[in-house]
């Protein structure tokens, strides 16, 4: 976690103003005002990390809910349950892997993706869409196992899935996770594994399950 946090911040004496245009920084100030955050909230943070934070915040009713979500999420519940019951926990991806994946992006691309989320949040025509409410609907669809409705809620089209950011977050990661799962399944001896993977990896093209099917595994959806 310490490694991941270090990747998010400038530790060379510079700030965000030194790395993005005045126009980008001005947009960010409008967003901090809109979210009732201090004007310098993101000054020491790199664009990719700001984009990640703003993407998450757009689905929540307030910034305070972000810290709650990180401590009360399903993944944390399952990890804690496994530890308390003495079950071994293995990583499909570690924090270092995720940090390197998210941060290893050219500065120009980082600023471009930051502007995309800023423009979306500043778009007055999008105010009619209640993202926190839509996110709540998606959570309920997930809980009910309504895969079709849940997939539609993500609104992931082929064009969206093909953009650089989506390819980083979904494409190659699915292949890597499928390979690790195959290693577990093909290990000597009998064993059962309970695997927790982010929901977006179940609704995209060539997802983990598709990769496993290509390897010859039988995959069943159990509701």
From TrEMBL:
Give a Pfam family name. TraB_PrgY_gumN
Q: Which residues form the signal peptide?
A: none
Q: What is this protein called?
A: TraB family protein
- What is the species listed in this Swiss-Prot or TrEMBL entry? Fontibacillus panacisegetis
What phylogenetic lineage does the species belong to? Bacteria, Bacillati, Bacillota, Bacilli, Bacillales
């Amino acid at each position: 976690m310490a490694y991941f946090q270090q990747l998010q911040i400038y530790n060379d004496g510079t700030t965000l103003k030194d790395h993005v245009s005045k126009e980008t920084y001005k947009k960010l100030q409008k967003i901090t005002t809109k979210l009732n955050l201090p004007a310098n909230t993101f000054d020491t943070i790199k664009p990719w990390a700001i984009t990640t934070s703003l993407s998450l915040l757009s689905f929540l009713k307030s910034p305070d809910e972000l810290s709650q979500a990180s401590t009360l999420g399903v993944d944390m519940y399952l990890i804690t349950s496994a530890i308390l019951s003495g079950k071994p926990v293995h990583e499909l991806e570690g924090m270092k892997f995720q940090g390197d994946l998210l941060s290893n992006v050219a500065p120009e691309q980082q600023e471009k993706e930051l502007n995309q989320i800023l423009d979306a949040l500043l778009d007055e025509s999008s105010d009619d869409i209640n993202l926190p409410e839509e996110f709540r609907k998606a959570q309920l669809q997930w809980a009910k196992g309504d895969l079709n409705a849940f997939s539609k809620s993500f609104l992931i089209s082929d064009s969206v899935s093909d953009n650089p950011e989506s390819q980083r977050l979904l494409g190659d990661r699915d292949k890597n996770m499928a390979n690790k799962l195959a290693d577990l399944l093909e290990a000597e001896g009998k064993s059962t594994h309970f695997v927790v993977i982010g929901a977006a990896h179940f609704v995209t093209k060539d997802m983990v399950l598709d990769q496993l099917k290509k390897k010859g595994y039988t995959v069943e959806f159990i509701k």
